[in-house]
Structures are given as structure tokens and as C-alpha cells.
């Protein structure tokens, strides 16, 4: 025996009874329709919930992406700004480096001129030309500066880099030779300085007033033409008298012609005599340094007034002291 199950399709009636005397509304439907409506409603609600959850997730993801995009954009803009600032700084440093390289070239030229001047000093005892004291614009700006700011083109930047590189390479390649030249010249100058200390080059008095030069003159006492064997420098009694060069005191004393006197012997082989002193402040065999005091100016012996009579003796013969003496301040302005 076989049984067949048939779902019941019951009928339902829904009455809507309004207030008053309005007619009653009747809605008739079967159970299958109610079931379909319930299933559809549940499905729709589920779909709405799923869509809401998905939309919420997508909204959060979009918000996260927008935040990340904003942060990336900000970071990118900051990076771009930093790069531009770095490029500007590099350009400024390049310009400064270019100016410094020009200054290095200028200084090297000055050093070369200085080296030549030092050689001329040691060679002739006097300067042959003046140093070029022209300074670069950056070292001697008077007043303000201004003008329109025009960025350098790529071509100008490339040229500037090339010129700066060539200038620095040239300066660095020339520097060792110049340094060696200066070292050689320094040694020569040191030798020259030592030589000048043993030659009677130091002016022996505070006064520079020459009252009688070396050579032929009328004798101040007899009026007869005679040879003046030294240089007379006027001054005040008691003025200090200085050694014209390094040396050793080999004689001091007094005579009717010389008055109080001091004689120095110098490593160069020369002798110097200091006469008519009012006072001698050194003794025989004293080692003297150039510029040290050895007595005081006076008018003793055969003298018409306060002065120093200085003699330079070479191989037993007196020669003109002005061949050696350097007048204080004579090189100022060179």
C-alpha cells in the first residue's frame, strides 16, 4: 500500500474592520502565499544585512585608502619640497665653491707675487714693485647689493660646474710647486735675515737727522778740505746708542779726537766705531745683539755739538755707513 503526502493548502482570510460603518475589507490568501512572502521577506532582510555589512566594510576600506593616499601625497609633497630645497642648497654651495675657487686662484697669484717680492728683497735689498692689493668683490663690498633673481639654466649650471672643477684641479696641481717655492724662499729670507743681523744695517740712534755725511768736506774746526770718515747723526745728549749689528766689543776708551768710543767686531768681518759718546754702558769682550744699547749720545772729544760719529771699517778702510744702514720707516708704504 502506498501513501502520498499532500501538503495542506489552507486558506486564510484577513479582516480589516474600520471604525464606524465603513465596510469590512477581506483579504484571502492561501498558506503557500504566506510562506512565500515570509521566505521572500527573510531573504530580502538577509540580503539587506549582507549588503550593509559589505558596504560598511567597503566604506572603512575606502576611508583607510583615502587616509593612506593623503599620507602618501603629503609625504610625496614633502619629499619633493625637500628635494627642491636640497637642489637649491647644492646650487648655492656650487656658487660659493666657485667663488672660493676664484679666491684660491687670486690668493695663489698673490703668493706667487709675494714669493717674487721676497726674492727681490733678498736679491737687491729693496722692493722692486708693490704687491697687487686688489681684492675680490666679496672681500671689499661697500654699500648694498641687489638685483633681480634669475635662476641659472641647466647649461649655465653645467658650465659653472666644469669651470669650478677645472679651477680647483689647476689650483691643486700648482699648489705643491708653489709651496716648495715658498719654502725655498723662506729659507732664503731666513738666511737674508741672519745676514742682515751681522751687517751694520740697524739705525744706531733714535734721531734720523744726519748732520754730516761720509766723504770730502771742510773741516768744522780748520776749514781745510778733508775726508770725513764716518756719518754724523745729530741728537740730544743722553739719547741711547744702539749696536748696528751683532758683534763683540773689542775696544772702549777715550781719546781727544774720538771722545768716549766703542768698537765692535762683527761676524761679517766689518768693524763699527761709535764716537763722541757721553757715556759707555758696555765693557770689552761683551757680546752684543743688533739693536742693544752700548752707550749714550754726547759731544766728547773733537766735536762741535751733540751727535754720534759712526764709522764702518772694511779691510782696514773706512767706507760709507749709508751703504748698509736702513733708515727707520724708509720702506713704509711699499
Automatic annotation (TrEMBL):
The residue ranges of the M23ase beta-sheet core domain are 227-321
A molecular function (GO) held by this record is: metalloendopeptidase activity
Coiled coil spans: 80-124
What are the protein's UniProt keywords?
Coiled coil, Hydrolase, Membrane, Transmembrane, Transmembrane helix
Transmembrane regions listed in the UniProt entry? 33-54
A Pfam family per the record: Peptidase_M23
What CDD domains does the record point to? M23_peptidase
In terms of superkingdom, the source organism counts as Bacteria
Gene3D superfamilies referenced in this protein's UniProt entry, alphabetically: Glucose Permease (Domain IIA) (2.70.70.10)
InterPro entries in the cross-refs: Cell_wall_metabolism_enzyme (IPR050570), Dup_hybrid_motif (IPR011055), M23ase_b-sheet_dom (IPR016047)
Task: Indicate what this protein is called per its UniProt record.
Answer: Murein DD-endopeptidase MepM/ murein hydrolase activator NlpD
Q: Which organism is it from?
A: Fontibacillus solani
Instruction: State the organism's lineage.
Output: Bacteria, Bacillati, Bacillota, Bacilli, Bacillales
Amino acid at each position: 500500500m502506498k501513501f502520498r503526502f499532500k501538503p495542506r493548502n489552507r486558506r486564510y482570510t484577513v479582516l480589516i474592520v474600520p471604525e464606524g460603518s465603513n465596510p469590512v475589507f477581506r483579504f484571502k490568501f492561501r498558506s503557500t502565499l504566506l510562506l512565500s512572502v515570509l521566505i521572500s521577506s527573510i531573504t530580502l532582510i538577509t540580503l539587506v544585512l549582507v549588503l550593509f555589512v559589505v558596504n560598511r566594510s567597503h566604506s572603512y576600506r575606502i576611508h583607510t585608502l583615502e587616509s593612506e593616499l593623503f599620507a602618501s601625497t603629503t609625504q610625496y609633497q614633502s619629499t619633493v619640497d625637500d628635494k627642491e630645497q636640497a637642489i637649491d642648497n647644492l646650487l648655492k654651495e656650487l656658487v660659493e665653491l666657485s667663488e672660493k675657487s676664484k679666491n684660491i686662484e687670486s690668493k695663489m697669484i698673490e703668493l706667487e707675487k709675494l714669493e717674487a717680492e721676497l726674492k727681490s728683497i733678498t736679491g737687491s735689498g729693496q722692493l722692486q714693485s708693490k704687491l697687487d692689493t686688489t681684492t675680490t668683490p666679496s672681500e671689499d663690498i661697500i654699500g648694498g647689493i641687489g638685483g633681480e633673481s634669475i635662476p641659472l639654466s641647466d647649461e649655465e649650471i653645467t658650465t659653472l660646474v666644469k669651470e669650478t672643477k677645472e679651477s680647483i684641479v689647476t689650483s691643486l696641481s700648482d699648489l705643491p710647486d708653489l709651496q716648495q717655492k715658498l719654502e725655498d724662499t723662506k729659507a732664503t729670507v731666513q738666511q737674508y735675515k741672519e745676514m742682515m743681523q751681522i751687517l751694520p744695517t740697524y739705525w744706531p740712534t733714535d734721531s734720523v737727522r744726519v748732520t754730516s755725511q761720509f766723504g770730502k768736506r771742510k773741516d768744522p774746526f780748520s776749514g781745510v778740505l778733508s775726508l770725513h770718515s764716518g756719518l754724523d747723526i745729530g741728537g740730544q745728549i743722553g739719547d741711547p746708542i744702539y749696536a748696528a749689528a751683532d758683534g763683540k766689543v773689542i775696544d772702549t776708551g777715550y781719546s781727544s779726537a774720538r771722545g768716549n768710543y766703542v768698537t765692535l767686531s762683527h761676524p761679517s768681518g766689518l768693524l763699527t766705531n761709535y764716537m763722541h759718546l757721553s757715556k759707555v754702558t758696555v765693557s770689552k769682550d761683551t757680546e752684543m745683539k743688533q739693536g742693544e744699547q752700548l752707550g749714550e749720545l754726547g759731544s766728547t772729544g773733537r766735536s762741535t755739538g751733540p751727535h754720534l760719529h759712526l764709522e764702518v771699517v772694511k779691510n782696514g778702510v773706512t767706507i760709507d755707513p749709508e751703504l748698509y744702514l736702513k733708515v727707520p720707516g724708509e720702506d713704509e708704504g711699499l
